[in-house]
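pinned: reference chain
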Amino acid sequence: MAESWPEETSKLMPERFISEPIKFLTETADTSRMAIGEPGLPSEFVWRGETVVVLVVLRSWRETGKCRHGSPEMYIRKHWYEVVSDSDGTMKLYFERQAGGGRGGARWWLFSVSEPEENP
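pinned: its C-alpha coordinates
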Protein backbone atom coordinates (compact mmCIF):
# COMPACT_ATOMS: atom_id res chain seq x y z
CA MET A 1 0.00 0.00 0.00
CA ALA A 2 1.17 3.52 -0.74
CA GLU A 3 2.20 5.75 2.14
CA SER A 4 0.53 9.10 1.51
CA TRP A 5 -2.50 10.66 -0.15
CA PRO A 6 -1.52 12.58 -3.33
CA GLU A 7 -1.35 16.38 -3.10
CA GLU A 8 -3.47 16.86 -6.23
CA THR A 9 -6.59 15.36 -4.66
CA SER A 10 -9.82 16.22 -6.37
CA LYS A 11 -12.89 17.47 -4.57
CA LEU A 12 -14.93 14.54 -3.25
CA MET A 13 -18.67 14.17 -3.63
CA PRO A 14 -20.81 13.64 -0.56
CA GLU A 15 -20.57 10.26 1.06
CA ARG A 16 -22.82 7.60 -0.52
CA PHE A 17 -24.18 4.97 1.90
CA ILE A 18 -23.55 1.41 0.65
CA SER A 19 -23.71 -1.14 3.53
CA GLU A 20 -22.78 -4.21 1.46
CA PRO A 21 -20.53 -7.14 2.32
CA ILE A 22 -17.17 -7.32 0.57
CA LYS A 23 -15.14 -10.42 -0.24
CA PHE A 24 -11.94 -10.36 1.75
CA LEU A 25 -8.95 -11.56 -0.29
CA THR A 26 -7.04 -13.46 2.40
CA GLU A 27 -3.75 -13.50 0.51
CA THR A 28 -3.65 -9.67 0.55
CA ALA A 29 -4.20 -9.22 4.31
CA ASP A 30 -1.83 -7.07 6.35
CA THR A 31 -1.15 -9.56 9.14
CA SER A 32 1.14 -7.30 11.17
CA ARG A 33 -1.68 -6.06 13.46
CA MET A 34 -3.26 -9.48 14.04
CA ALA A 35 -0.85 -10.24 16.91
CA ILE A 36 -2.59 -7.54 18.98
CA GLY A 37 -6.11 -8.67 18.11
CA GLU A 38 -6.88 -6.43 15.14
CA PRO A 39 -8.07 -7.81 11.80
CA GLY A 40 -5.69 -8.08 8.86
CA LEU A 41 -6.90 -5.29 6.59
CA PRO A 42 -6.87 -6.54 2.98
CA SER A 43 -4.98 -4.51 0.39
CA GLU A 44 -7.51 -5.85 -2.14
CA PHE A 45 -11.14 -6.94 -1.90
CA VAL A 46 -14.00 -7.75 -4.24
CA TRP A 47 -17.11 -5.57 -4.29
CA ARG A 48 -19.92 -6.05 -6.83
CA GLY A 49 -17.68 -8.41 -8.83
CA GLU A 50 -14.82 -5.90 -9.18
CA THR A 51 -11.46 -6.04 -7.42
CA VAL A 52 -10.77 -2.87 -5.43
CA VAL A 53 -7.19 -2.00 -4.44
CA VAL A 54 -6.55 -0.14 -1.17
CA LEU A 55 -3.85 2.47 -1.83
CA VAL A 56 -3.75 4.32 1.49
CA VAL A 57 -5.31 3.98 4.92
CA LEU A 58 -6.31 7.52 5.94
CA ARG A 59 -7.47 6.63 9.44
CA SER A 60 -8.75 3.80 11.58
CA TRP A 61 -10.84 3.63 14.74
CA ARG A 62 -12.81 1.18 16.87
CA GLU A 63 -16.46 1.00 17.86
CA THR A 64 -17.10 -0.40 21.33
CA GLY A 65 -20.17 -1.60 23.18
CA LYS A 66 -21.18 -2.93 26.57
CA CYS A 67 -21.11 -6.62 27.38
CA ARG A 68 -24.33 -8.30 26.26
CA HIS A 69 -24.49 -10.47 29.38
CA GLY A 70 -24.73 -7.77 32.07
CA SER A 71 -21.03 -7.32 32.88
CA PRO A 72 -19.77 -3.70 33.07
CA GLU A 73 -16.95 -4.53 30.63
CA MET A 74 -16.69 -2.86 27.22
CA TYR A 75 -15.87 -4.84 24.10
CA ILE A 76 -14.68 -3.90 20.62
CA ARG A 77 -17.58 -4.47 18.20
CA LYS A 78 -16.14 -3.11 14.93
CA HIS A 79 -12.82 -2.02 13.47
CA TRP A 80 -13.29 0.87 11.02
CA TYR A 81 -11.01 2.05 8.21
CA GLU A 82 -11.20 5.02 5.90
CA VAL A 83 -9.15 4.20 2.80
CA VAL A 84 -8.23 5.60 -0.59
CA SER A 85 -9.02 3.15 -3.38
CA ASP A 86 -7.64 2.76 -6.88
CA SER A 87 -10.87 4.32 -8.18
CA ASP A 88 -9.58 7.71 -6.88
CA GLY A 89 -12.20 7.89 -4.15
CA THR A 90 -12.39 7.16 -0.46
CA MET A 91 -14.22 4.28 1.16
CA LYS A 92 -15.20 3.46 4.72
CA LEU A 93 -14.87 -0.23 5.57
CA TYR A 94 -15.50 -2.08 8.77
CA PHE A 95 -14.79 -5.49 10.25
CA GLU A 96 -17.37 -6.97 12.64
CA ARG A 97 -15.83 -8.88 15.53
CA GLN A 98 -18.90 -11.14 15.65
CA ALA A 99 -20.66 -11.78 12.38
CA GLY A 100 -24.43 -11.36 12.46
CA GLY A 101 -26.25 -14.64 11.94
CA GLY A 102 -28.85 -13.24 9.54
CA ARG A 103 -26.34 -11.72 7.14
CA GLY A 104 -24.63 -14.82 5.82
CA GLY A 105 -21.76 -14.59 8.29
CA ALA A 106 -20.14 -11.63 6.52
CA ARG A 107 -17.55 -9.84 8.64
CA TRP A 108 -16.06 -7.27 6.21
CA TRP A 109 -18.42 -4.54 5.00
CA LEU A 110 -18.23 -1.51 2.72
CA PHE A 111 -20.08 1.21 4.62
CA SER A 112 -19.79 4.17 2.24
CA VAL A 113 -18.06 5.59 -0.82
CA SER A 114 -17.04 9.16 -1.70
CA GLU A 115 -16.00 9.47 -5.33
CA PRO A 116 -14.23 12.39 -7.03
CA GLU A 117 -16.51 15.08 -8.34
CA GLU A 118 -16.78 15.15 -12.13
CA ASN A 119 -15.48 18.29 -13.84
CA PRO A 120 -18.15 19.75 -16.16
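why pinned: The longest strand covers residues 50-66. The two ends are 31 Å apart (CA to CA).
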